[in-house]
Each structure stands twice: as structure tokens, then as C-alpha cells.
Amino acid sequence: MTNEFDFAEKRDIAWCPGCGDFSIRRSLLAALKELGLEREKVVMVSGIGQAAKMPQYVNASFFNGLHGRALPAATAIKASNPELTVIAEGGDGDMLGEGGNHLLHATRRNPDLTLFIHENMIYGLTKGQAAPTSRVGLKTPLQVGGVFEKPLNPCALAVSLDVTFVARSFSGDEALTTELMKRAIAHRGFAVVDIFQPCVSFNKVNTFAWFKENTYRLPDDYDPTDRVAAFAKAIEEEPFPLGVIYETDTRTPFEECLPLYAKDKTPLYRRERPSAEIAREIDAFR
User: Fold this and answer.
1) 247 with 258, same domain?
2) DSSP string of the chain?
3) pTM, whole model, 2 decimals?
């Protein structure tokens, strides 16, 4: 059983003072503690970016890979050992820019893992150019005349592709973020939580005050199982709805569909079977 200090990695944190990532980390540590997870069975996966540093500040196993490539690695880790709790984490540039193609295919596969997207509407690691979620008109050192491309809406994209759990939060509301993280991690299937996270160094428009003024919590009587209504809610902007937007249990997770686990859910490294037999199963699948 865990205690409140098990997941808190003791090391210097290389985020700017006031960064929204600090509160996301607090929410994540609280969620892991409250779920009572075993530290040894939690794996965090990330690519490159400020948000992608998160696994280094959590006392669990982690894989830090290439920019935008967290989801393929996370899917493989979960498929190799379904007993693990796998969490992928990254910024909007990492997950929706460089990693956008992998996000699309993760929605098709529906692996039983959780994705936390830190959405600050800017590239924070590489000094402030526009991200896929930057609002039209935002001026940056690179987009000196202002962004003119329509921003991506990760929640609307996820609902349209029938992701089995879609939610949005704001790092300034730590209680809500913790609750949504817990629900996402406990969900069976691919879960995406988009978290608004102000970048205090490079985005002077979409600040804590801006996000607070342009968001609202979904009412208690909102039904997240109605996909059509969920899509209508997901495309709402300024104000943006916060909470569980869509949830379904109608899809089987990716790893449960693999022939290797059709009858036996035991991870490969724990099976006492001849390697030739396993090889035949893999060849049959091909």
C-alpha cells in the first residue's frame, strides 16, 4: 500500500516559477495516492517538452522518448504487461503537433492507458512559437503578425473518434483535476484528459485569469454517455466546459484483442511456455 510520499520524487524541478505544471503535478500525486496504486506497477511515458518532464518528477517507472512519440511506446508497454497502470503525458505541441499522427492511431487501437495533455496554447520549451492549439491572433516571436490558422480542439477531436473517456480540466482547479485524473486512470480503455495549463513565460494572453474567466464546470445533470451531445459540448469555446465530456464502455481495449492474451492475461515474462509456442501465436496473428 502506498503512502502520501511514495510518488513524490525528491529532486529540483526545472519549470518556471508559477508554471501551471506544478499544480498538475500536485493533482497527479494526489490522484495516484488516492487510487492506492502500487508505485512499482505505475509507468509514465513522455516525449519532449516542459510537460514531458513530468515523469522525472514522479517516483515511478518511466520511459522518456522522442518528441511526439509517447503513445506508441505507452501502447507497447501496456500490451507487454497489461497489469501495469500506464500514463502518457505531454504538452499540446508534443501530443498534437509532432505526435498528432500517433494520437489518431491510438484512438483506433483503444489501449487501456491514460493520456494527459498539458494545453498552454504555446511551445514552452522552445521559447514561445505558436502551438497547434494557439488561438487566432496570438502574436509570438515567430508569428509576428499573429496566428491565422484555426486551433485544434483535442476534446472535439477525441469525441469525434470515439475515444472511450474524454475530459477537460484547468490546472488552477486542482480538486477537479485530481478527480478527473482518478476517473481517467480507473477507466478501462483509452482515456484523454486535456488540461489547460498557463505558460507564465511565453503566453501573456492565455493566463490563469483568462482560463478562469473562459471556463465553466459541467452541471451535475450532464450526461457524458450521449456522444452526439458530447460532441456539441466539446466544440463549445470561450467559455470551455470542464469535466467528463464523453465516456463509453462499448469498446474492447487493444491489448485484450491480441491473440497472445485472448485466453491468458499473464504477461509474457511470467509465462512458463516454450518460446516456439509463443512464436507460433505471433506468426498466426500476422
Assistant:
1) no
2) ---TTTTB--S---S-TT-THHHHHHHHHHHHHHTT--GGGEEEEE-SSSGGGGGGGBSSEEEE-STT-HHHHHHHHHHH-TTSEEEEEEEHIIIIIITHHHHHHHHHH--S-EEEEEE-SS-TTTTSPPPTTPPTT---SSSTT---SPPP-HHHHHHHTT-SEEEEEETT-HHHHHHHHHHHHHSSS-EEEEEE---TTT-SSS-HHHHHHTEEEPPTT--TT-HHHHHHHHT--SSEEEEEEEE---S--HHHHSGGGSS--S-GGG--S-HHHHHHHHHHH-
3) 0.90
Provide the domain count of the chain.
2
The range of the structural domain enclosing residue 130 comes to 21-251
Cell of 154: 483535442
221 and 161 inside one domain: yes
Answer yes or no: do 259 and 145 share one domain: no
Say if residue 202 is in the same domain as residue 117: yes
| Cα radius of gyration (the chain) | 19
Three cell numbers written together for 25: 503535478
Q: How far apart are CA 31 and CA 12, in angstroms?
A: 22
Query: What does the pLDDT look like over 31-65, one tens digit per residue?
Result: 999 999 999 999 999 999 999 999 999 999 999 98
Over the stretch 260-272, which tens digit does the pLDDT of each residue have?
776 777 777 777 6
